[in-house]
Amino acid sequence: MRPPLSYLRCSGCGWAAAATDAYPFRCANAGDDDVDHVVIRVLDTAALHFPRGTEPDPFARYRSLMHSYHLAMDAGLDDDEYLQLIAALERSVAAVDGHGFGVTPLRRDALLSDRLGFSQAGGVWVKDETANVSGSHKGRHLMGLLIHIEVAERLGLAAPGDRRTLAIASCGNAALAAAVVARAGDRRLRVFVPADADTGIVGRLRGLGSEVVPCPRQPGEAGDPAYLRLREELAAGAVPFTCQGNENGLAIEGGETIAYEIASDLAGVAIDHIVIQVGGGALASACAQGLREAAELGALAREPRLHTVQTTGAHPLERAYTRVRAMLPAGERAGQGGSPGPLRRVDVERVLTAAAQHRSAYMWPWETEPKSIATGILDDETYDWRAVVAAMLATGGRPLVVTEDRLAEANELGAAAGVAVDPTGSAGLAGLLDLRQAGVVGADERAAVLFTGVRRG
Ligand SMILES: Cc1ncc(COP(=O)(O)O)c(C=O)c1O
């Protein structure tokens, strides 16, 4: 039998999901140990080709890079049946949100390139997600999951009638996206929110048919109460419909379509840098993995340097990166301007494999609640820290911690460029402003940012 073109395994302990597992989202060994258990999807890039189709729907265009597609093909479904399944779901998404998923625009922005002092050779490339389903990129993670669940049911991997409740803890873009996608899939969704959640968002979630569960803090309880209630719901059998790799590793895959689209649109033109805002880390993890696969498949001239952006109030990823980097041999640790050059993947993997056995030495929740205008990147932990630290080390990128003034400046620039982006969505541009000022990104270089969330209200 030929080896699978796509499989799922835990990057912390090596556990591999059985191909017959309908819900292979979380490592079976994840529990109370200190190992960083995150399920990752591994593609056999040596045996695959980068899709060159022109389908407007990314889930159709890049289907041969999706786990659910290989699951379906291996079980005897044909390409047409898979496409029909996606098309039916997209029709439902459109009925709920006005339109389904489509490839989003990528362009060199002349105004931003000019304002940031780039030459004609270089510039700022903006990938604009603000008009995507539910107003952010988050739906990509969840649509990938919904397609997987539908395929698993079609193949009989889930017992007939076992339409499990979906669950998420969020009161922002992820919750809104989950509510739209769950509704499109005609699935019950429970959304765990903080007791003081925005009433406008709660109203919208209820309007979309989700069950909203306010989570006041219980006496003596430490940590995020909404997340604690979600964990209880998952333990009782709900499906993690989340945008966090530790709860659902397959959620990363749908986000990778952003990177595949960038690779297709650049059509062989190399970008030197990509700067990504990080909350829980799923977005950056997805882009890192997608860009890497695109490069391995020959669709990108080379991987760009991946830089990340967090706020002065909350930067757990930067803390983890600094700690991991301190484990490198002195020669590799040294580098120009505070970041090492690209390191060999084997060396990166060696140091992160060791780090992943002692998660609590690298990642823990913030002690006091931070504030920022970039509310979407204040997660108490960077759940997908390992993959993102690995990508920064392997590409020679760095973690940036930006001020509130920078976030505001970037947001004004985004508006000047004609995009109704919110401060979280333009935070990558804040990082690029810092990188330009520090001289890390040269005037003749090409840098990409993602405008990920629409300004609401
Ligand atoms: C608009 C927007 N951009 C970026 C992010 C960060 O994504 P992640 O949490 O996957 O790091 C978020 C998260 O809520 C968001 O809402």
How does this structure look, described?
This protein is of the alpha/beta class and 457 residues long. 39% of the residues lie in helices and 13% in strands. It has helices at residues 58-61, 67-74, 79-97, 110-115, 138-154, 173-184, 199-207, 225-235, 251-266, 282-296, 316-325, 330-333, 345-355, 385-395, 404-416, 427-437, and strands spanning 6-10, 39-43, 106-109, 123-128, 166-169, 189-194, 211-215, 239-240, 273-277, 305-311, 399-402, 446-451. The strands form three sheets. A six-stranded mixed β-sheet has the order 3-4-12-9-10-11, sandwiched between helices. Strands 7-6-5-8 form a four-stranded parallel β-sheet, with helices on both faces. Strand 9, helix 10 and strand 10 form a beta-alpha-beta unit. It is globular and about 60 Å long. The N and C termini lie far apart (55 Å). The site of pyridoxal-5'-phosphate has 20 residues, from helix 6 and helix 10.
Short description:
The protein has 457 residues and is α/β, with parallel strands linked by helices. It is 39% helix and 13% strand. The protein has helices spanning 58-61, 67-74, 79-97, 110-115, 138-154, 173-184, 199-207, 225-235, 251-266, 282-296, 316-325, 330-333, 345-355, 385-395, 404-416, 427-437; strands spanning 6-10, 39-43, 106-109, 123-128, 166-169, 189-194, 211-215, 239-240, 273-277, 305-311, 399-402, 446-451.
Keywords, separated by commas or semicolons:
alpha/beta, 39% helix, 16 helices, 12 strands, binds pyridoxal-5'-phosphate, globular, four-stranded parallel beta sheet, 457 residues, single chain
